């Protein structure tokens, strides 16, 4: 996109940072990203590892995540690098399969939650009036409840299943996205190009989806990235509290719960899933920050 | 040998058990020199919220435990020697020469907690209630219905109970904490005993407070019919659901006693000992509880006996006991030899039977064949589990083993009381783990409680004429040797067939008593001797 590169170039001239090599190949772009956003690159690497682990879980895991076929409480060693849990299951295999569950829950709930929230915010902000005001009160009501309490209540009402975790997280994420995208839309809809489109007789829906939505995309992407980490943490918290995925599903939060029963005898039971959660959230946050920096006109290219 | 001769023998087995417990330091008795000190509040815990409080209509330990000190029975286990049965509201009793009529003479001057006088009409109202075919009384009713014909109030202080036949365990059953005597006027006023305000008994403590999910509190009954008792001003039972919370409370000294379900495992007991040192006495004992896996016999896939048989064959009880109970259990036994003595099928025989023997290869291959015969691609089942104790862990182990034969289970968890409600209605397919504690030490208890058509815990709706007939014969038989043969036949039949409830193991575990707690004696079942009427706290 030459226009985008031009814009980046302008911003870079203002801040004195190196512009993105728009006309180079992917390798040069990667090098530019790595040098200008080293923390973001580290985050991206962690996220990439997470994705690879999740996708290749059946091939990577040395044992079945639910196979209680070994001696319990084996300390980490050559045969079981992360040890075994209280039922004699390989913790490494469960951590690997847990990545799949975490990523699936994180991505799906954020995809639905942020997308639905964004559409809600954009449409109501564009039309404004009583509908906008009413919808904001609904968002206020949802946001007034502490997120984990709301999620717990939803899980208690819906029952324990991975699908219901996704539904609960989606409901949790919708108002945040709606509120953020509403504010972006309120400024976009005052722009001259929107006025010009409307003056040219473009239909309202076409204006929304061809002119407003594309201009909200950078905010959407940042929200999307940052909230995956949030969704993963809430999923783990729900599982820890016994209201997440069913207990036999290998989830990191559920593994933490099991580990609390053997803190003194088998600390590795909480160490490795805890490490997995921390690393994932760390990686996603670093990547999210980098994307925010790159898409924020005030910071674009200047904070590498 | 007659049935009445059995009781002393059973007592001797129990006396031995209690002696072992005492030698382990488990039974906390006051020494002869110590004078009981009145006052103080004893804190302990209950593993789940009891929900509905009707002692006659419910079956979870949580219900019995939170009501134990509120009610009295006609008989009870002697607080000083829980192996013995003595009078509670009944001062004495006589038996007709044919062994079919028991006459109970009641104490004078006993008052209900609301001040009303206690009379034989209350005993009759209670017995009529639990014996009424319309009343589904899973514990007391389940025990008494097969043997009791009727109860009559002869005069205000005399009750006569007529049996259908001379039944060996009648006194044991009557002494059960589940056969608590309720007030006629309370039953008439409230309709049932579910609500906290209906908890009006004659016991040493009054039901003071029930904060759902939080605490149940008793206060001293100053008009208790045993002068000078109880010593304690009150008892608080905190609802502690998660095992880590229970253990943390014990380590912090917030819980002064652990003689309840679930028992601690070895690693937990070690952790507690490290934390509390000499302040607590810890020991291992049986809790007269069997770990079962239930299948619903009227719902697919377990309406098919082959599938039930496959589950029996595939379960590796030795692995389950080793991992989930850390070795503290008797795998595969239908009756525990430590508790039922010679009535239990010898373990040497049990451990050679298909499903119980090691190694498992042959049995797993046969189980797989049975599943494939009906479900070539395997079958998915929902496994209902109450989130109490380590049930979820146990369920995961069971499902891990069943996956090898093509039965793929997904766990659905229930809060304790909600789970019981669902199981009672039969709204389940598979319960991979559910403990059932025995109400007495009689060997026939298990069969009347779980396996007969009318059993209170026959949740899987299993009907087997042979089991019904053998159980009935076992109750009627007064010759010890013949009775033993009946129960052996029953055990062999269950282990070689396809019952709804598969025996996994008899559960044992670790318990503790804070050394400040005096006068507490461990009883043969978890339901007995938890009224705390003679317990006191040292400074």
Assembly context of the chains: heterodimer
| N-to-C span of chain A | 21 Å
Report Rg of chain A.
22 Å
Secondary-structure element pattern of chain A, one letter each: HHHHHHHHHHHH
Major sheet of chain B: size, sense and barrel closure?
5 strands, antiparallel
* Cα separation of the termini of chain B: 49 Å
* Helix content estimate of chain B: 25-40%
Instruction: Compute the number of helices of chain A.
Output: 12
Instruction: Count the DSSP helices of chain B.
Output: 18
**Class from helix and strand fractions of chain A:** mainly alpha
| Silhouette of chain A | globular
- DSSP strand content of chain B: 15-25%
Report the portion of residues of chain A in β strands: under 5%
Largest interface: A-B, 21 and 24 residues
How much helix is in the residues of chain A? over 70%
Q: Which structural category fits the helices and strands of chain B?
A: alpha+beta
Query: Kindly state the mean pLDDT of chain A as a whole number?
Result: 86
Number of beta strands of chain A: 0
Which key features would you list for this structure?
heterodimer; A: 304 residues; mainly alpha; 12 helices; 73% helix; globular; disordered N terminus; B: 539 residues; alpha+beta; five-stranded antiparallel β-sheet; four-stranded mixed β-sheet; 23% strand
């Amino acid at each position: 996109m030459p226009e985008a590169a031009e814009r980046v170039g302008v911003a870079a001239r203002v801040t004195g940072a190196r512009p993105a090599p728009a006309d180079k190949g992917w390798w040069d772009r990667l090098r530019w990203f790595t040098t200008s956003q080293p923390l973001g690159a580290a985050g991206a690497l962690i996220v990439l590892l997470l994705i690879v682990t999740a996708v290749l879980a059946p091939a990577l895991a040395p044992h079945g995540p639910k196979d209680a076929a070994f001696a319990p409480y084996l300390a980490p060693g050559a045969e079981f690098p992360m040890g075994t849990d209280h039922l004699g299951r390989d913790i490494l295999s469960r951590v690997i399969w847990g990545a799949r569950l975490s990523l699936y829950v994180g991505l799906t709930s954020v995809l639905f939650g942020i997308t639905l929230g964004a559409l809600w915010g954009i449409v109501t902000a564009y039309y404004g009036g009583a509908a906008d005001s009413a919808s904001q009160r609904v968002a206020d009501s949802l946001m007034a409840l502490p997120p984990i309490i709301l999620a717990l209540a939803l899980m208690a009402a819906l029952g324990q299943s991975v699908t219901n975790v996704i539904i609960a997280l989606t409901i949790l994420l919708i108002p945040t996205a709606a509120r953020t995208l509403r504010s972006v839309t309120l400024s976009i809809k005052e722009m001259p190009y929107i006025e010009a489109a409307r003056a040219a007789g473009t239909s309202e829906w076409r204006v929304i989806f061809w002119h407003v939505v594309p201009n909200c995309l950078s905010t959407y992407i940042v929200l999307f990235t940052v909230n995956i980490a949030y969704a993963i943490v809430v999923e783990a918290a729900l599982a820890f509290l016994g209201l997440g995925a069913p207990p036999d599903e290998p989830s990191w939060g559920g593994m933490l719960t099991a580990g609390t029963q053997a803190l003194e005898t088998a600390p590795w039971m909480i160490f490795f899933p805890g490490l997995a959660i921390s690393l994932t959230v760390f990686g996603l946050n670093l990547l999210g920050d980098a994307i925010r920096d790159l898409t924020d006109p005030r910071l674009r290219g200047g904070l590498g | 040998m007659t049935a009445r001769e059995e009781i002393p023998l059973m007592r001797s087995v129990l006396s031995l058990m209690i002696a072992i417990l005492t030698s382990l330091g488990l039974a906390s008795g006051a020494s002869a020199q110590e004078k009981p000190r009145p006052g103080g509040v004893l804190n302990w815990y209950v593993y789940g919220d009891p929900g509905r409080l009707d002692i006659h209509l419910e079956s979870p330990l949580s219900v019995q435990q939170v009501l134990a000190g509120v009610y009295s029975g006609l008989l009870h286990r002697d607080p000083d020697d829980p192996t013995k049965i003595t009078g509670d509201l009944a001062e004495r009793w006589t038996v007709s020469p044919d062994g079919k009529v028991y006459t109970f003479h009641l104490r004078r001057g006993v008052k209900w907690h609301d001040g009303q006088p206690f009379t034989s009409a209350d005993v009759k109202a209670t017995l009529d209630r639990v014996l009424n075919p319309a009343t589904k009384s899973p514990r007391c009713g389940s025990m008494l219905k097969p043997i009791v014909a009727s109860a009559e109030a002869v005069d205000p202080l005399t009750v006569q109970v007529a049996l259908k036949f001379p039944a060996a365990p009648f006194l044991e059953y009557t002494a059960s904490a589940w056969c608590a005597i309720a007030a006629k006027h309370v039953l008439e006023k409230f309709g049932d005993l579910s609500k906290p305000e209906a908890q009006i008994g004659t016991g040493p403590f009054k039901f003071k407070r029930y904060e759902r999910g939080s605490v149940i509190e008793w206060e001293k009954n100053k008009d208790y019919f045993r002068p000078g008792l109880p010593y304690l001003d009150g008892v608080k039972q905190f609802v502690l659901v998660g095992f880590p919370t229970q253990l943390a409370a014990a380590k912090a000294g917030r819980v002064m006693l652990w003689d309840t379900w679930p028992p601690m495992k070895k690693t937990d007991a070690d952790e507690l000992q490290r934390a509390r040192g000499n302040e607590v006495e810890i020991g291992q004992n049986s809790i007269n509880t069997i770990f079962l896996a239930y299948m619903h016999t009227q719902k697919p896939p377990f309406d098919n006996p082959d599938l039930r048989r496959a589950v029996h064959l595939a379960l590796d009880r030795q692995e389950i006991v080793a991992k989930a109970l850390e070795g503290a259990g008797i795998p595969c036994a239908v009756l525990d030899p430590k508790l039922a003595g010679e009535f239990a099928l010898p373990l040497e025989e049990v451990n050679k039977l298909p499903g119980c023997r090691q190694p498992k290869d042959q049995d797993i291959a046969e189980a797989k064949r049975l599943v494939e015969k009906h479900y070539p691609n395997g079958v998915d089942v929902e496994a209902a589990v109450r989130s109490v104790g380590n049930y979820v862990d146990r369920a995961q182990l069971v499902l891990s083993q069943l996956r090898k034969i093509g039965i793929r289970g997904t766990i659905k968890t229930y809060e304790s009381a909600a789970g019981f409600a669902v199981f009672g209605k039969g709204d389940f397919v598979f319960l991979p783990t559910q403990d059932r504690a025995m109400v007495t030490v009689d060997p026939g208890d298990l069969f009347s409680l779980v396996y007969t058509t009318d059993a209170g815990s026959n949740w899987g709706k299993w009907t087997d004429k042979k089991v019904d007939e053998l159980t009935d014969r076992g109750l009627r038989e007064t010759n010890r040797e013949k009775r033993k043969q009946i129960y052996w036949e029953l055990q062999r039949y269950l282990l070689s067939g396809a019952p709804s409830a598969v025996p996994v193991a008899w559960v044992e575990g670790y318990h503790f008593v804070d050394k400040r707690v005096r006068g507490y004696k461990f009883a043969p079942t978890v339901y007995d001797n938890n009224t705390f009427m003679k317990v006191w706290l040292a400074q």
